């Protein structure tokens, strides 16, 4: 098992609209800068057996007491974890349909970061399905 830490503020993939081609929305611009930074740093995610931990920066408006109590606590508000994952995978893969097994979490932190843990075995899936063949055939 190995891990890589990238000091990048995570950005969710925005909802794509037809007008995004000519409107320069701030969320689209942030997303495209995020994709460029991911590619520039050479971030990689394997097709299986990974865990991505998105560390989202706490607002500066929070008190020191609140910041201390929320550090490394699960982030249970927007952006959704699937939109964060979608933005990351779209930046890395031209076609991300080959990614079939991975886990994503998001927590509060002092600075935005993306931590990618790879080498987490996914061999248990084959063993489970071999043992419970009726799930697939039934």
Relative strand content: 15-25%
How many domains, in number, for the residues? 1
| Straight-line distance between termini | 36 Å
For the report, how would you describe the main beta sheet?
4 strands, mixed
Outline, from the CA principal axes? globular
> Within the largest sheet, what's the order of strands?
1-4-2-3
- Radius of gyration (CA) equals 18 Å
Poorly predicted runs are none
Can you identify the CATH class? Answer: Alpha Beta
Number of strands: 4
- The CATH topology label is 60s Ribosomal Protein L30, Chain: A
Task: Please give the CATH architecture.
Answer: 2-Layer Sandwich
Helix content: 25-40%
**Order of helical and strand elements:** EHEHHEEHH
Q: Structural class, judged by helices and strands?
A: alpha+beta
Q: Tell me, rounded to a whole number, the average pLDDT.
A: 88
* Number of helices, where a helix is a run of at least 4 consecutive DSSP H or I residues: 5
Overview of this structure, please?
The chain has 5 helices and 4 strands, in the order E-H-E-H-H-E-E-H-H. With 138 residues, it is α+β, with helices and mostly antiparallel strands. It has a single domain, classed as 60s Ribosomal Protein L30, Chain: A (2-Layer Sandwich), CATH 3.30.1330. It has a 4-stranded mixed β-sheet, with helices on one face. The longest helix has 16 residues. The radius of gyration is 18 Å and the shape is globular. The protein starts with a strand and ends with a helix. The mean pLDDT is 88.
